[in-house]
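Late entry, written up from scratch paper. The run itself happened at the end of the previous shift, but nothing got recorded in the book at the time, so transcribing now.
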Amino acid sequence: MKSTQKNLQVLPPDDNAPVKLTKVVPKGWIQIAFWGLRLYILIMVVLVAIGFSRGIH
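Output as recorded:
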């Protein structure tokens, strides 16, 4: 049986330092798409709230 872990390397503890993350600011069409998704979610939550408040009659 062949070992599939032949190419894995074990890193010394010094190489496991945390990586600094940067925040990405969406621009253009991506920002419009995100705002559209937020608006869609808000509308769906309102519709679900209306549905639960009226119940099944």
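The two ends are 65 Å apart (CA to CA).
(Scratch paper discarded after transcription.)
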